[in-house]
Design brief:
Elements (H helix, E strand, L loop, with lengths): L1 E4 L12 H8 L2 E5 L5 H8 L3 H14 L10 E6 L9 H16 L5 E5 L5 H10 L2 H10 L3 H4 L9 E2 L5 E2 L2 H6 L4 E3 L5 E3 L21 H5 L12
Parallel strand pairs: 1-2, 2-3, 3-4
Antiparallel strand pairs: 5-6, 7-8
Length: 226
């Protein structure tokens, strides 16, 4: 089981108990941290986000996460502009060095994601007049080797209401998995459809954001793919 977090939710009093729940249940924590300092993080996520994120990482470290044991904490790096990330291992080494040296916090691994052209990032691209250029960059760097390891081939995203999605981008776009409704049509898949262990055979719902996962080194819920 993987829990995705932006590392700021846990700093709100009504959600602070999640930290103890994580330590008790033991899911892998995959946490967004756009950069290893305040300036780089603020440019993507806003002011004060880095400070709260570091506080959450420190609290997770205190509960055993990110310390090399069974409680795994992985961070996520997203590029801040219309380009592809450097090799993942190079970025991870810089994060390890800077975060432990400057803030005394640790983590297990780092995932370098190509950025999806949606939300704040899409708005920034549109402001710069580079939205189409970025999509063209992704398409031009399509990597067939990445396709075999995309998350949509063996994992699903689960919404709070039980609906299932092929991947996180489709979740953001509101494109749930479709399955046969038994009457010649389709319906949204839910967690109940996995009662037997796996979903019925289906087609993955694709859209232009799929190029974000299959360009360059590729990116999925486990980071670079090739």
């Amino acid at each position: 089981m993987i829990v995705r977090t932006n590392l700021t939710l846990e700093q709100q009093p009504e959600y602070a108990h999640y930290l103890d729940v994580f330590a008790e249940v033991g899911p892998q924590i995959v946490a967004s941290l756009p950069f290893y300092d305040d300036k780089g993080t603020a440019s993507q996520r806003g002011a004060k986000v880095f400070e709260r994120a570091i506080a959450s990482i420190r609290a997770l470290n205190e509960r055993g996460y990110g310390m090399g044991g069974d409680l795994r904490l992985d961070l996520v790096y997203n590029v801040a502009g219309p380009f592809l990330p450097l090799p993942q291992d190079m970025i991870e080494a810089s994060y390890h060095k800077a975060l432990e040296r400057d803030f005394g916090v640790k983590f297990d691994g780092l995932f370098a994601f190509n950025n999806w052209a949606c939300g704040r990032f899409a708005a920034d691209l549109l402001d710069m007049g580079m939205f189409d250029d970025y999509l063209a960059l992704l398409a031009d760097n399509f990597n067939t080797l990445a396709i075999t390891r995309l998350m949509c081939r063996d994992m699903v995203n689960v919404d709070y209401d039980g609906r299932l999605y092929d991947c996180e981008p489709n979740h953001v776009l509101g494109l749930p998995i479709q399955v046969d409704d038994g009457e010649g049509g389709t319906r949204d898949a839910t967690i109940q459809d996995m009662a037997g262990g796996q979903l019925p055979q289906r087609k993955v719902r694709t859209n232009p954001l799929c190029y974000s996962c299959s360009a360059g080194f590729g990116s999925s819920c486990g980071g670079a793919l090739v």
